[in-house]
Amino acid sequence: MKKKIDITVYGCEPDEAAVFNKLSYEFGVTVSLIKEAVSENNAKLAAGCRCISVSHKAELSEPLLFELKNAGVKYICTRSLGFNHIDIQAAGKMGMTIGTVAYSPGSVADYAIMLMLMLMRGTKSVIHRAERQNYCLNNLRGKELRDMTVGVIGTGRIGQAVMERLKGFGCTVLAYDRNHKAEADYVSFCELLQSSDIITLHVPLAEDTLYMIGREQLEMMKKGTLLINTARGALVDTEALVDALEDGRIGGAALDVLEGEEGIFYYDCTHKALDHPYLSALQRMPNVIVTPHTAYHTERVLVDTVSNTIRNCLNFERSLGNV
């Protein structure tokens, strides 16, 4: 007899809950939806479930994984592309499998293009002036994307989607990736840094990509280069970036992710002092745009994430012969 498939979903927001309830019925699984992020205190709520789903906002440390293992959890599906918030080594030692979800690359690709255009047209200053009823155009002359050379670092699904969109603007596109995964004008990392007017990052965070944009790399860039990061904050040495912006070595930055964003992004900090060494300085700069890790946040991605979470859990159960 096949076993009933139960999935415990932690950190489930109201909009996610509505989609989980709808799709769980269609897939024939039962879901237990928990609003709070997974923690050592609520790990026992997964008792009886081999599969759980977590958000990327929760840190899954070894002690927490141990509690989940004791509850009977064997498979953890994170509702994100990355898994830097999970102690993978500890999970492996405990015999637990970690899965990620794929979702529409268009969400992040669209957002990256939007950030490029906003920086090129000085949109932050335009909006701030207009809100103060200052409608002068002095120092607001922008540039056109077709006149730019755009360097795309990382040509996976999202990087390819960015390049596909850039074709329509008529700009020159350079690409860098250790694996040449797409039809593109691939160049060396150094050549991309030296030749690009705009550089956009689309690589995962790993040991070899940590601070891949540091002081040395920023100094290699053309004066006035615009940097876009919708991937992971720690790809960029933030201190070095602030120095390069203040010195005028680069022309601007648009950051949807930020090193040390944990505990700040996704929270209302309106009346709080920000515990971050560089965020306030970045936000004060007219040529810097900071958004709270929201590039992925679309309706299509929500449905993709929930449906692929359930599929991943079902596939894991099939591997055990339970479906």
Molecular structure report:
- The protein is α/β, with parallel strands linked by helices and 323 residues long.
- It has two domains: 120 residues, 3-Layer(aba) Sandwich (Rossmann fold), CATH 3.40.50; 185 residues, Rossmann fold, CATH 3.40.50.
- It is 35% helix and 14% strand.
- It contains eleven helices and eleven strands.
- It has a six-stranded parallel beta sheet with strand order 7-6-8-9-10-11, with helices on both faces. It has a five-stranded parallel beta sheet with strand order 2-1-3-4-5.
- Helix 3 links the parallel strand 4 and strand 5.
- Helix 1 packs across helix 11 and helix 4 crosses helix 6.
- The longest helix has 21 residues.
- The protein is elongated.
- The chain starts with 5 loop residues before the first strand and ends with a helix.
- The mean pLDDT is 96.
Number of domains: 2
CATH architecture of the largest domain: 3-Layer(aba) Sandwich
Low-pLDDT ranges: none
CATH class of the largest domain: Alpha Beta
The level of helicity is: 25-40%
DSSP strand count = 11
Query: What proportion strand?
Result: 5-15%
Oligomer status: single chain
Major sheet summary line: 6 strands, parallel
Instruction: Compute the CA-based radius of gyration.
Output: 22 Å
Mean pLDDT: 96
The secondary structure category is alpha/beta
CATH superfamily of the largest domain: NAD(P)-binding Rossmann-like Domain
Count of DSSP H/I helices: 11
Q: Sketch the topology as an H/E string, one letter per element.
A: EHEEHEHEHHEHEHEHEHEHEH
Give me the side-by-side strand order of the main sheet.
7-6-8-9-10-11
| CATH fold call of the largest domain | Rossmann fold
Q: What is the general shape?
A: elongated
Distance between the termini: 9 Å
Family: Belongs to the D-isomer specific 2-hydroxyacid dehydrogenase family.
Protein name: VanHD lactate dehydrogenase
InterPro entries: D-isomer_2_OHA_DH_cat_dom, D-isomer_DH_CS, D-isomer_DH_CS1, D-isomer_DH_NAD-bd, D-LDH-like, NAD(P)-bd_dom_sf, VanH
Pfam families: 2-Hacid_dh (PF00389), 2-Hacid_dh_C (PF02826)
